[in-house]
Amino acid sequence: MEETHLSPQAHGRLVEELNQRTGTRRREISEWIERAREHGDIRENADYDAAKTEQGHNEARIRQLEAILKSAVVVESTASDKVAAGTVVEVMMEGDDEKSTYLIGSIEEKGRGYDVISPGSPLGKALLGHAPGEKVLYEAPGGRFEVEILVVRPPD
Fold it and tell me: Which residues have C-beta within 8 Å of that of residue 70, sequence separation ≥ 6?
């Protein structure tokens, strides 16, 4: 199983979401199902169907959170000058006129104000361990591309 790199903030947020979904949310859905059953025939009960659908979504997210947290590696921000999980990297793609800024980490880091690149993605793998001023090549479905690393820094 591939490791999931998370900041301490993202890890805490996911643990909190898991606790909420396995506790409060499960009870709310269970009560909703019971109320819907009281309305009679469940074969033609839209409220019951909606509650069961919500229960399925909640249980799926619980399984997803458990898997993420099981493989999670909490990464502290460092003042490294090399690209690593948990760092923000500014790059210039070959042929582009504007720089792009990415957080190297898990998709669960979204919402921190950066586009996120997984360390296991083709671009993420190519960037890891390199420093500003270096150019790296990476293979993507659209071909082979060159990227120049401009800045490496911890997230804000």
Answer: 1
Kindly report each contact of residues 13-17 with a partner whose C-beta sits within 8 Å and lies 24 or more positions away, as own/partner.
13/108, 14/65, 14/68, 14/69, 14/72, 14/108, 15/69, 17/61, 17/65
Range list of H helices, the chain = 8-20, 26-37, 46-70, 122-127
- Phi-psi domain of 133 (left: phi exceeds 0; alpha: psi -120 through 50; beta: other): left
CATH number belonging to domain 88-153: 3.10.50.30
Position 111 confidence tier, pLDDT thresholds 50, 70, 90: low
pLDDT digits (tens, 9 = 90+) for 122-142: 999 899 999 999 999 998 888
Whether 24 and 68 have beta carbons less than 8 Å apart is answered as no
3-state secondary structure 81-108: CCCCCCCEEEEEECCCCCCEEEEECCHH
- Which CATH code for domain 4-74? 1.10.287.180
Domain boundaries, the chain: 4-74, 88-153
The pLDDT score that the predictor gives to residue 52 is 94
